[in-house]
Structures are given as structure tokens and as C-alpha cells.
Amino acid sequence: ASMDLPPDKAKLLRNYDLEKKWEIICDQDMVQAKDSPAHYLNKLRTYLDPKASRSHRKRKMVGDSTSTQVLRDLEISLRTNHIEWVREFLNEQNQGLDVLIDYLSFRLSMMRHEQRIALARSQSSDGINQVNTTTSECSGPTETGSTMSASWRRRARSAEAECEGAASPAVARRRTRHAARLNMGASTDDIHVCIMCMRAIMNNKYGFNMVIQHREAINSIALSLVHHSLRTKALVLELLAAICLVKGGHQIILSAFDNFKEVVGEPRRFHTLMEYFMNYDNFHIEFMCKT
């Protein structure tokens, strides 16, 4: 029986006694897949289809479950089913990795738009305080870290606005209606579970090799660092760190953060990550290190 384990897990398995190894193999063979890969992929493709929300047949096909629940079920299947199920999910016919990354990118776009709206509302509500703060900062001899942070965030919003075009509010409204009609969960929840699915895929050599050869997959994982949840950030850093450990992985991660810099509008590479670490009270560095 083949379990296609990465080196660290294979080493751990070799240390087990024969009885324990046999139990694991028997348990693996007894696993029965609840649903086929196509079951999940058809639903993800439906969520990605901009016309699906106008189709009664497709709305009925996705059912009552939210997109988040579909992703949770997929993650469990990727993590617990036999390796052949995972291979079927990733094969050329199903192209599961491409579909999952397309969905993750779609939800990341929605989340960044939601974050911009929240930021704009926050700035609007305390505009007077910001004017006073800016005035006092301008009178000082140096630019503070918070001012620099605000500066690059303004550049980030400008860069994203250029990328998404003037029609982005209308596009965002259509996406919101689309998500509501298809009973899609919160973008933040979907992104977190998508990253969990990526971790499950990377838990075997076959899936891991596919991910590190998929540039958009690495870029999307890195872009998920803008998620507000510390657990999501920790999960993202765990996956990126794992890629760094393989031959050529360091350059792959550097390229991903170059892309992150362009998309987010950072003044320099790793600016966001370093800002997290510098603001350790908000970032809870102890939690991140333990995780």
C-alpha cells in the first residue's frame, strides 16, 4: 500500500512498530470516500460562473450548504481519503488545483474590496481626528512609522483601483448579489478553508510537487496574508515556510512576495510582514511562534 508521504511524515512512520504500521495501512484501506472529486469541483465551478446565480438549475445544484461548508467537506476529503482520491482530484481531467486556486483568487478579490470599504468608512467617521493628527505630524522634523504606513496604504489603494478599473463598484455589487443568490459564505471564512485545503493537498509528495510548480497557487497563498485572522496568517506562513525548505523553494517564495508587493502596493518587499512583526502587540507574535 502506498501512502505517498512527505519525507518528515515518512520518517515518523518508519519509527512505528510493525503492528502500528499494519493498523495504519488497514485504516487507510477501509476509508470510503463519501463523494467524488467531481461533486466538489462542480460546485466550486458553479460559484465561479458569473451566470450561475441567474440559473435556477445551478442554484438548485449547489443546494442549501454554504460555500464554506462545501470547502470544509472538501478539506476533510483531501485530508482523510485515500491518496488515489487526492490524485483523482488533481488529475488533468478534474484540474482540482486550478479550480481551487481560481476560487481562492476570486474570494481574495472580494475580501480586499470589503477591506477597502471598511477602511473608507472608518476614515470617513473620524476624518476630523485624522486632520488634527496629520497637522501635528507635519510640524515634526521626521516622518513616523504610522505616517509611512498610511502612505503606503494610500499607494496600495491607488494601485488596486488602477488594476480593477473604474467599474469596480458595479462589479463588486454584481459579485455580492451573485454570492447571496448562491448562498456563499463569508469571503474570509472561505479563504481560510481554502488555505486548509491547500495544506491537505501539500501533505503528500504528489500534491506538494504540483503546488510548488503552480506559480498562481503560491501567489494566492502569499496574498492570503492580508486576512485579518491570526490563525489564517499562521497557516499561510506555515505553508510558505514548508516551501522554503525544498530545493528552489526560497526563490519561489521571493517571487511570490514580489507579486505580493505589486498587488498590495508595498513600498518594498516584505513590508507588510515586517509591519506585523513590529506591531507585536496587535500581531500576537507569541501565538504565531507557538502555532
From TrEMBL:
SUPFAM superfamilies referenced in this protein's UniProt entry, alphabetically: ARM repeat (SSF48371)
Annotated signal sequence range: none
Name used for this protein in its record: SFRICE_020571
GO biological process: cell migration; cortical actin cytoskeleton organization; regulation of cell shape
Region (Disordered): 128-150
Start-end of Polar residues biased regions: 128-148
Entry's Gene Ontology molecular function annotations: actin filament binding; small GTPase binding
Domain of life: Eukaryota
GBD/FH3 domain ranges (all copies): 1-291
GO cellular component: cytosol
Stored InterPro entries: ARM-like, ARM-type_fold, FH3_dom, FMNL_animal, GBD/FH3_dom, GTPase-bd
